[in-house]
Specification:
Blueprint (H helix, E strand, L loop, with lengths): L11 H4 L21 H23 L6 H25 L12 H25 L5 H28 L13 H11 L5
Length: 189
């Protein structure tokens, strides 16, 4: 090379071995490898119903028995915040930057747990509230949100199978293992 030591991307020496990572500039990717359009819609609806249930619950000024109200408040707030975060992570490239390698398992487990907790919290709040319209409406949104979470888990299970099952690790063929051993032995250089 002459006095110019900079190399261009068109340099034929590097074309065969260097691949530039495509930059599509998209921050919102649906469908993605972990979230299809149907599940994205279900998750967004669950987030919105959780938010409305939480807001309506916050409007309640007096409670007959406050424990079910507080449990419902905790579950609806948790569902809204964490599911919103999960939707953002799974529908953007940000999930590549987080050190989690088993997104399907995390998504399935979280969705089942939050769906069951929301169902229990809604049932407890429905059984023990003051009977005002705002409480009944909050409970209705809670039941709908819990059903959406459980529907999301069923759709994930039907489309991808149970992510909890351990998949057999592929083994290397014997000849590749023997060849690797020969390469790694001292003096075979």
């Amino acid at each position: 090379m002459s006095g110019n030591s900079t190399m261009t991307a068109a340099d034929p020496v590097y074309n065969a071995t260097t691949v530039q990572e495509p930059k599509n500039g998209k921050w919102f990717i649906v469908p993605s490898e972990y979230l299809d359009k149907w599940r994205f819609g279900i998750k967004v609806a669950a987030v919105l119903f959780s938010l409305v249930a939480f807001i309506l619950e916050e409007v309640v000024l007096h409670c007959k028995s406050c424990s079910p109200l507080y449990f419902f408040e905790f579950v609806s707030c948790t569902a809204f915040l964490f599911t919103g975060l999960l939707v953002i992570l799974l529908s953007t490239p940000l999930h590549h930057r987080v050190g989690i390698s088993c997104w399907s398992m995390l998504d399935f487990s979280y969705t089942v747990v939050i769906g069951v907790l929301f169902l229990i919290a809604s049932a407890a709040f429905a059984k023990d509230n003051g009977g005002r319209a705002v409480e009944s409406t909050s409970v209705a949104f809670g039941f709908i949100a819990s059903l959406l979470f459980l529907l999301d888990a069923v759709v994930l299970w039907k489309t991808k199978g149970l992510p909890c099952r351990s998949k057999a690790q592929p083994t290397q063929p014997q000849n590749q293992m023997a060849e690797a051993e020969k390469l790694n032995t001292p003096g075979s250089e």
